Amino acid sequence: MSVDTRVAPQVHPPDPSGAKVASPRRGGLRRSLVRALPVSPAVILLLLFLAGPIGYCAYIAFTDLQLTGQAQSSFVGFDNFRAAFEDEAFLNAVWLTLVFTVLSSLVGQNTLGLALAALMQRASKPVRTVVGGIVVTAWVLPEVVAGFLLYAFFRREGTLNAILDWLHLPSQNWLFTLPILAVSFANVWRGTAFSMLVYSAALNEIPKEITEAAEVDGAGGWRRMWHITLPMIRRSIGTNLMLNTLQTLSVFGLIWVMTRGGPSGKSQTLPLFMYEQAFQKSMIGYGTAVALLLLVVGSLFSVVYMRLLRTEV
To answer: What would the pLDDT profile of 12-63 be if each residue is shown by its tens digit?
Structure first.
């Protein structure tokens, strides 16, 4: 004889007062709405002034909109993107953008900022004040002013060639022979302060007991830097690289003042190429497509850095 072990469903008696009982799902939704209420103005502003323009630009990128000589625009699909990848000037701008970003951001600002932060930790207070003031001054200068200063430094009759002539070394027109290197150095000079400040804060968070213990064990300066310092500030390195990369991808005024993308497009990065197509040649649709591709490149860099930051030390 088998015994039925199934549990009978519980039946809740109706509320004698007749009041309706709110479901847990509806109560949770109400609490979520109440919590989201304080941030709703910020969300609305972001949608209005950030997502809205991006969406409109994405629409224009699929049209043949022009500034002059056109009554109305028409939808052209992927023609602008297809024309970009078939344009040698666009491919040259992509290559120069990658060179400019790697030289001035990934290598220049990141490495020099870390070196300055490490050296200033061991320097005296007067040296830290003077060096920090000089580096930060270059950072807070307006981009146009910094561009004119570096133009005066690299031009044929500029400061760099005067120094080389005084040292009896050969001089040249740097803005004509090596323009992408000149603008990369200018961006390093202007933007290193941000990396220095980020790494200074990160290095100050490292417990002194750890470095002192490694020094007692006989670890030299390079070994302490490689095995202790860099792993412990890895998240700061990733954050700094991401912010510097995104800022470098959008540099326009500095290069425009120094070279205007020349000569013959040898320093024309994607922002300058986009400006030329959209406002000098009046092809707004094509220029906006290039801007959208630049946004995609920046998003790819951000995804890579965010994946690196997700990994714990």
So the answer is: 555 555 555 555 566 667 777 777 788 888 888 888 888 888 888 889 999 9
C-beta atoms surrounding 296 within 10 Å: 10
Place of tokens 């890895």: 234
Interacting residues of 268 by C-beta distance below 8 A, sequence separation 6+: 89, 92, 93, 96, 261, 262, 276
Query: Do 277 and 271 contact (CB within 8 A), yes or no?
Result: no
> Which residues is 75 bridged to in the sheet?
63
| Rounded CA separation 108/146 (Å) | 17
What tokens does 72 get? 């109305």
For the whole prediction, is pTM greater than 0.85?
no
CB 191 within 8 A of CB 215: no
CA distance 271 to 253: 10
Other beta carbons less than 10 A from residue 114's beta carbon: 25
Structure tokens at 156: 């044929």
